[in-house]
Write a structure and sequence with these properties.
Helices cover about 45% and strands about 5% of the residues. The protein has about 475 residues and is mostly helical. Helix 13 (about 315-330) packs antiparallel against helix 15 (about 365-385) and helix 17 (about 425-435) packs across helix 19.
């Protein structure tokens, strides 16, 4: 007996005909092989046929009625959209511009060296947002993040940077938990102190009236939390304006602290009043004249066996360049991490070190560092020829990162951990070695771009008899 079945139980998957199943005594003797040229799953071709019939019978999708018209001006700021009630079974049709944006996302990923198949969830998020809101006006980053948070099948990897390049993104200003806690502490103070602390937070975040290096979020919270009790005590005794604070008030507040909090509190108050004076909220810096006694340690030279073969112990071209820039030109790890390709002038053998808030420092490359730099540039262009990250040093993560982030601090720390020498000690040894050959602080300032106090500090260690202060002098 032969019967037509609705399921391809044997996996034969016949193409161009119907499957007949043999039963009875012939069933055990029948051997079937799955057809390799079909894409029909285990449910059989009948289910695939039914799916095609349903797709054809389904009415055509219409364009979303919620498309944003750029000619329609908003009367007030729209509250955040609730994407948790999204019904993905009824997807609207994409406009022509939206389809072009989705299609060009593939080319964008390939230009970064990423595989589009690995970010299918980002395509899903992009289709949802542009399908319902359109691409005539910039999309809110808050909407993209809200859709990406719906499930593990939604994601926003590579999307913000791609839309920002197209001018279709309104970025979201996200404060970390540490910065939010710092702002909450500022709000709890009287109005004058609250305004001053908020200004201080902006300066520490690098968004003041003048460019400056941004501190870490946890450092910002630590500074504000240490200064908050002092500011509250001043407000309780009637000192509610930072312009009324004197050096005596700061001295008494610092003296009331115990242990490590003494120096930490003074450091926080110095940072605050320095920022307020820079933003012209106070006329003078009362914390500048307050100091704490402490031992003054001089830099010490490293042993010769520690310096021998340093570059040979670094395993990669990037690590060798990092160690070479610190050991030869006394750069800090932060400066090495944030070097840009535009800072390099290979034809003239020069390297520009950008220092926010200070003058740029020019490094004249010697033959060793020039060879290390050229080797790394060749490897960089070979491994990531299409990367858009402007930084000189890259890793596998930062080369395809949408935010063009700099190399992590741990990545520049590992080479020095491998050779057993701290970067700060290697930098100090280089400056100290140069100081042994000269007694001119101007020479050290020009060669390394260091501050006058730092130059004198190393000259005192190199020439103690010449730069030792006279005990009889007033």
């Amino acid at each position: 007996m032969m019967v037509e079945t609705a399921s391809d139980l044997s996996g034969a998957g016949l193409v161009g005909g119907d499957q007949l199943w043999f039963s009875g005594e012939f069933a055990l003797l029948l051997r079937t092989v799955k057809h390799k040229g079909t894409n029909v799953g285990v449910r059989g071709r009948f289910e695939a046929k039914a799916k095609v019939v349903r797709e054809v019978a389904r009415p055509p999708r219409e364009v979303s009625e919620h498309l944003i018209d750029p000619r329609q001006e908003g009367l007030f700021r729209c509250p955040e959209r609730d994407w948790t009630r999204l019904d993905e079974t009824r997807q609207p049709a994409l406009t022509e511009n939206a389809m072009q944006v989705v299609a060009e996302f593939t080319s964008h990923l390939r230009s970064l060296g990423a595989d589009p198949n690995q970010v299918a969830s980002s395509f899903r998020t992009l289709r949802i947002v542009v399908g319902r809101l359109g691409v005539e006006v910039p999309l809110l980053e808050a909407d993209i993040r809200a859709v990406a948070a719906l499930s593990d099948s939604h994601h926003h990897a590579r999307l913000p940077h791609y839309l920002q390049q197209l001018g279709l993104l309104e970025p979201l200003n996200l404060d970390s938990a540490d910065v939010r806690r710092a702002r909450e502490l500022a709000d709890a103070l009287p109005s004058a102190f609250a305004t001053a602390v908020h200004t201080w937070i902006r300066v520490m975040a690098g968004v003041g009236t003048r460019p400056s290096r941004a501190l870490k979020d946890r450092t910002i919270h630590a500074y504000v939390s240490r200064a908050h009790p002092v500011l509250s005590d001043w407000a309780s005794v009637g000192l509610e304006d930072p312009r009324a604070i004197t050096s005596s008030d700061i001295d008494r507040a610092v003296s009331a602290q115990r242990g490590a909090n003494t120096r930490a509190t003074l450091c926080s108050l110095r940072s605050m009043f320095r920022a307020l004076k820079r933003e012209r909220l106070v006329f003078r810096d009362p914390a500048r004249a307050v100091s704490l006694p402490g031992p003054k340690t001089l830099p010490r030279p490293l042993a010769t066996d520690q310096l021998r073969g340093l570059l040979g112990q670094a395993h990669t071209a990037r690590d060798r360049l990092t160690v070479g820039l610190v050991a030869v030109h006394a750069l800090t790890r932060f400066e090495v991490r944030h070097l840009l390709l535009t800072d390099i002038d290979l034809t003239r053998g020069r390297l520009t070190i950008r220092r926010p808030g200070c003058l740029d420092h020019t490094v004249y490359l010697d033959e060793l560092t020039w060879d290390l730099l050229r080797t790394w540039l060749a490897e960089r262009s070979t491994r990531w020829p299409s990367t858009t990250n402007p930084h000189l040093l890259l890793s596998r993560q930062t080369a395809v990162n949408d935010s063009n982030a700099a190399l992590s601090g741990l990545s520049t720390k590992k080479p020095f951990m491998a050779i057993g020498v701290r970067a700060s000690a290697l930098r100090a040894d280089r400056i100290l070695d140069e100081a042994k050959h000269t007694a001119d602080p101007i020479h050290l300032i020009r060669v390394f771009g260091i501050a006058p106090n730092t130059a004198m500090h190393h000259l005192l260690a190199a020439h103690p008899a010449q730069f030792r202060p006279d005990p009889i002098a007033p």
